[in-house]
UniProtKB/TrEMBL annotation:
Keyword Signal on entry: yes
Database matches in InterPro entries: CarboxyPept-like_regulatory
SUPFAM superfamilies for this protein: Carboxypeptidase regulatory domain-like
Protein name stated in the entry: Carboxypeptidase-like regulatory domain-containing protein
Species this chain originates from: Pseudofulvibacter geojedonensis
Amino acid sequence: MKAQKKNFTKMNFLGVVLFALFALNTSFAQTNEKTISGTISDSYGPIEDVNIVLKGTKTGTTTNEKGEFTFPKSLAKGDILIVSYLGYKTQNITITENTKSLVLVLKDDLIEIAGALNNNTPYKSKRSK
């Protein structure tokens, strides 16, 4: 009877140790995810309200008045950030193992207005006289 009780106690202790190892295993696991921050500017200085979005998601952020941002989600190797702002070329930035922060200088993009302006007709008011 004592031998059975001793074996049962050993099994309980072993069960608790195994449970603890499995429960703590995820907290010690290494992940390649990291928080990315950076600054975005053009040839004149920092740009406010630049859009930074994780490709394929609706997760993103914008730059502050100093052109600074911190992405709200941890990113992994291979994730792609889409950086866009009206009047500038959109850039796709692929996150690598070495990416810690981003310093981007946006380049001007040509904006075309659809339709031609008609300058041949004088301005006419719609008010009745």
